[in-house]
Amino acid sequence: MTDADLVALSLLPPRMWRDAADALRRGDSPSSTLTRLAAVRWPNDAARLATLRADAAAALSRALTHGIVCLAWGAPAYPAALTTIIDPPAVIWTRGCVEALDAIAVAIVGSRAASPYALSVATQLAGDLAVRGVVIASGLARGVDSAAHRGALAAGGITVAVLGSGVDVVYPREHAALAAQIDERGAVISELVPGTPPNPFFFPLRNRIISGLSRAIVVVEASEKSGSLITARCALEQGRDVLAVPGNVLTGRNRGAHALLRDGAKIVESADDILEELGVCERTARGARAGDGPADPVLACLIPGEACDLDAIAERSGLGTTALLPRLFELELQGTVARVGGGRFVRVDKPC
After folding, report:
1. Tens of pLDDT along 53-81?
2. CA-based angle 116:231:11, to the nearest 5?
3. Whole-number Å distance between alpha carbons of 189 and 209
4. Is residue 149 a contact partner of residue 159, using CB atoms and an 8 Å limit?
């Protein structure tokens, strides 16, 4: 079973995940990739392959029992944004609305021991972005993360929480009710099989998924050793925009964010700063030239009403997926391209 082999690939040691992704991108089958990598990792333990497959089957059974959806590599619902990162998960386990993963998202991350100022800023930014239709991504942690989720929900928006545990093992435990609220309009996701307990090692790994799902990452209050800086580094490696909120220079609580600003991150004082960085301001200007033809190479290869996936658009436009996906995000924000699910896009005749 292909899905079971993809799940089994996710059970390999994390240092092998990139090798698995490289093989799948080459077109190798999940079964052959699993067989080869298991032999590399356990050359003297032929039974380990059968164990991996049995564990994968058990994970799929547990997911079915708990109403958890497994989005496997190559499936139409697998998030298109994650296909462009260097080490995408073989599978994503999801609670809630799968559609939330296929929309324009901004990540808001920051300190767990956040100041009242940081909590207020995160809540405000998330709410202001959510009412404009932007999905808020974060990690369900204490502090800035949970404030961002709550801000989006309070504004009637959509938010996605990426866990460092199985999606049925909410951590911290006091956020179980918040996770249930997120399920109603957004999604709680993880690359870890259901039942996986939280482990400090998993949290830095999940940060690449938070950034990978997002068009931009906003850091709200981060110390010099904050995990949020890992997310920012992942974002830069993935070609995402990095922004930061300035804070009090006397306390030292925000030295990490200030370092990002010194290194060129855009300063954020309001949601408008984020939307401007995403190119929303271009929508009005371009909308005034409704009579202009699609000079953009991506628009030029799209026929109104015809939905195309990333591979088809890349082939027609001549752009690689690394450059193509950010451009599609920009065109979405301008109202000239719409996402229709399954990682497919369609050109819109008139800007929205």
Report:
1. 999 999 999 999 999 999 998 888 899 88
2. 125
3. 10
4. yes
Q: Quick one: CATH architecture of 281-347?
A: Orthogonal Bundle (1.10)
Mention every residue, 6+ apart, whose C-beta is less than 8 A from residue 172.
141, 142
Any idea which architecture 98-277 has in CATH?
3-Layer(aba) Sandwich (3.40)
Same fold, 98-277 and 281-347: no
Look at residues 127, 156, 114, 149 and name the one whose alpha carbon lies nearest to residue 257: 114
Residue 296's pLDDT is what? 72
Global model pTM greater than 0.85? no
What tens digit of pLDDT does each residue of 123-177 get? 999 999 998 889 999 999 999 999 999 999 999 999 999 999 999 999 999 999 9
Q: What Å distances lie between residue 179 and 70, 157, 159, CA to CA?
A: 18, 14, 10
What φ, ψ does residue 210 adopt, rounded to 5°? -55, -50
| 78 closest CA partner among 65, 68, 69, 86 | 69
